[in-house]
């Protein structure tokens, strides 16, 4: 049975960042102050529903601000963009997440800062909804995205409410300008309960993959959001998801993202995959220190930067066919992380017979470094399972045919 090298690669990345112990757990929410700072997890979910994870991927933590893009998507889906844009703008604020600020039309600058998120929360389930009905609607919808029943950490929400002067001021400001109708207390209560929904890194990877896939759930195949809603949500995440670190983030990592003060961080690669990390120590901007490091490495290694000019292409595995004793795996397009993931998935699923496996690269355009590593590792595993392997590479697109154990892959012409 062939196994996947991706979880091993993810564990390596966790090992690389484990030594980063700078930063502090959020302390303005009393219950978070005593959170265990050590957990570390990373999870990926492709738009085809393949999940890979490593580390403390089953530990639950509260979503906090990571709930904002999902609530925004639900509001867009329920109310449509016109109503949503009338309440909250889509301009990056370059400000801290809890800034008391409005734009020239007295709207919060964007739905990723607290002012915008409190206003968006109020759009869910109609203006006259009770707090409990509104929060239940969000919980149910988040659960559907995660593929399991999520629960709310009411003790944590209670503790946050006891110290929520800042968010209360924001809610009063929003009420003063007619952005929300509810009592400030109820608006903050509703938003705080939304933030206190508990998830694991794996849940978040699955939830984000639905946004990556244009609204189709990667596992159930259910259409949960319009593609346009996902596009809008990702756009706002790209420009404002990392608050006053958003510009730096877009230049270095280049993935639409959202962080939460409990230590979660999500990123979405449109059309490819959802990524989630968990590590509670935060930098001065309120973003997870090790989470940011993991994303930097993934983005570099995997060639995930959105502004990358390297070509991307779908359907990397063109066919797997057998002719006599030889199995041909025909690849096509640009080999990036997603392409090598589909290759690895295909070979793990395939029942190989005969004695020779040929990887045909004649229609491959380019190789990204992570794809070289993944594809060679996949081939080596086929060889270690007892088959002869060879590559057909007439244009020499694979620059290095040496396996990780030093042996060389044979080539055929
Ligand atoms: N509930 C938190 C707050 O409103 C969420 C902030 C965050 O995760 N950045 O302060």
Automatic annotation (TrEMBL):
Q: Which UniProt keywords apply?
A: Acetylation, Hydrolase
- An example Pfam family from this entry, by short name, is STAS
What's the Enzyme Commission number for this chain? 3.5.1.2
User: Reaction(s) catalyzed by this protein?
Assistant: L-glutamine + H2O = L-glutamate + NH4(+)
Q: Does the keyword Hydrolase apply?
A: yes
List the GO biological process terms: glutamate biosynthetic process; L-glutamine catabolic process
Question: What class does this enzyme belong to in the EC scheme?
Answer: hydrolase
**The UniProt record lists the keyword Phosphoprotein:** no
Q: Which InterPro entries is this protein grouped with?
A: Beta-lactam/transpept-like (IPR012338), Glutaminase (IPR015868), STAS_dom (IPR002645), STAS_dom_sf (IPR036513)
Matching PROSITE patterns, A to Z?
A: STAS (PS50801)
Gene3D superfamilies linked to this entry:
DD-peptidase/beta-lactamase superfamily, STAS domain
For the ligand (substrate), the binding residues are: 65, 114, 160, 167, 191, 243, 261
- Annotated STAS domain ranges read 316-402
Which SUPFAM superfamilies does the entry link to?
A: beta-lactamase/transpeptidase-like (SSF56601), SpoIIaa-like (SSF52091)
- Give the Gene Ontology MF terms in alphabetical order: glutaminase activity
Q: Which proteins does it associate with, and in what oligomeric form?
A: Homotetramer.
Q: Belongs to which family?
A: Belongs to the glutaminase family.
List the NCBIfam families.
Gln_ase, PRK00971.1-4
Q: What name has this protein been given in UniProt?
A: Glutaminase
